[in-house]
DNA sequence: GAATAATCTTTCCACTGTCTAGTTCATCTA
DNA sequence: TAGATGAACTAGACAGTGGAAAGATTATTC
């Protein structure tokens, strides 16, 4: 007999939600389905997440945190000295490994950015796109150019991740006879370095 | 008294759907709401679009077609000789002017890419990112590099559009004191040109 | 002028998010 | 240790949803 109090229902609901996301897609991710998957009444999630927005936001926060950790780990394991590209590789690899989760992390109309966990996790993740060498100096102007550089890199990586996940680039890939998909993606990622420092500062 | 046959219900439903999208956001865009807005029974849309997916796909097709026309018109009106950047400006301007519609156009789990209208409209729109000078020659290999270039540009523009629409870049913008937002965006768009031709072919 | 087909309505079902009220349990205070 | 307080969870209800089925109305075609 299941005890009345679950004990760690919050975590159980999060992993149930992610399981549904993988198995049946984002349209099947509902509060009730999550509760069913966790073997709990259909209103139980409300106490931990309030809303469907709350559940999705918490899941997104977990996603950003894991993205951050994964990209860091991949970069530190990489042989290359170029940490920026290493982080980018990790970023794209994460998105490809968890497509449903990644897309959920950009479902703006179902995310509550006032939730501190989510905001800080996302900020951490994207701090990897500003290399330490470009960090703003103390008395200097706060690195306007590096901020714009970070925006450009983020845009490129995010767009690439989205189009890859949705298979929108595979049509173009099939047009290149005998091309190695992973190699092409690596080439696209490498172009990230060309985005910084515009012609007219 | 309204006649039993509407006459041009398909178009009426599409514009009703877009009105809802602008007014109440994508979560409020339902089959029933669209039918209500058009003053018709809630199952009437099914005959023209079959599904919610069908309605969304038709709306997305219209969006891609208009994006294509808009970008072309903007580019032909532009003074610059650089058509690529001119198209890119039009692309971003369209996305910012119709944020709900643009996001809907990338709602992959609600789009039916087997619908020919949608597929061809999207293809037309993205053909603008492959300048005529880079078009594949007849007897040559079909421009592997230009295909990858197009992918890179598309990724960058799509990511930029998404992050702009969702306001994810405004935090960074506010960190640059006294920066003109439009000027910064123009600078980001101009970087598109730096993406082509990777270091090692 | 009938037959046929397209268009639209009515009715129905299972499902959803969220509200309200109640039940069970753990923990903290006296 | 007893009792109160509040957190965690359940049960039931409501309006809204997508979609299927079957019927009504009008255009079109032969």
Number of domains of chain A: 2
Q: Which sheet architecture does the biggest sheet of chain A show?
A: none
CATH superfamily of the largest domain in chain A: Tetracycline Repressor, domain 2
Using the alpha-carbon principal axes, give the shape of chain A: globular
Which protein chains are joined by the largest interface, and how many residues does each one contribute? A-B, 40 and 40 residues
DSSP strand count of chain A: 0
Low-confidence stretches of chain A: none
Q: Concise description?
A:
The first copy, chain A, is built from 10 helices and no strands.
How does this model look, in words?
Two copies of one chain form a homodimer. Chain A has ten helices and no strands. Chain A has 201 residues and is mainly α. In chain A, helix 4 crosses helix 5. Chains A and B meet through helix 8 and helix 10 of A and helix 8 and helix 10 of B. Chain A binds a DNA duplex (30 and 30 nucleotides) through helix 2 and helix 3.
Topology:
The structure is a homodimer of 201-residue chains.
Chain A: H1 9-24, H2 31-37, H3 44-49, H4 52-77, H5 83-97, H6 99-104, H7 116-127, H8 144-165, H9 170-174, H10 181-190
Chain A binds a DNA duplex (30 and 30 nucleotides) through helix 2 and helix 3.
Name the features.
201 residues, Tetracycline Repressor, domain 2, homodimer, Arc Repressor Mutant, subunit A, mainly alpha, 2 domains
């Amino acid at each position: 007999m299941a005890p009345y109090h679950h004990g760690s229902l919050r975590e159980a609901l999060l992993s149930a939600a992610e399981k549904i996301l993988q198995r049946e897609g984002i349209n099947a991710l509902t509060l009730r389905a999550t509760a069913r998957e966790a073997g709990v009444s259909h209103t139980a999630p409300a106490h931990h997440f309030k809303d469907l927005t709350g559940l999705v936001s918490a899941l997104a926060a977990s996603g950003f945190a894991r993205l951050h950790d994964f990209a860091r780990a991949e970069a530190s394991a990489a042989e290359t000295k170029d940490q920026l590209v290493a982080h980018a590789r990790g970023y794209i690899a994460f998105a490809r490994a968890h497509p449903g989760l990644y897309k959920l992390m950009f479902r703006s109309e179902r995310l509550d950015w006032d939730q501190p966990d989510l905001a800080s996790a996302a900020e951490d993740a994207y701090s990897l796109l500003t290399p330490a060498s470009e960090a703003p100096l103390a008395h200097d102007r706060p690195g306007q150019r590096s901020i714009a550089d970070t925006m450009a890199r983020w845009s490129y990586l995010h767009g690439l991740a989205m189009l890859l996940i949705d298979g929108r680039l595979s049509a173009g890939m099939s047009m290149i006879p005998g091309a190695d998909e992973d190699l092409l993606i690596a080439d696209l990622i490498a172009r990230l370095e060309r985005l910084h420092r515009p012609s007219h500062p």
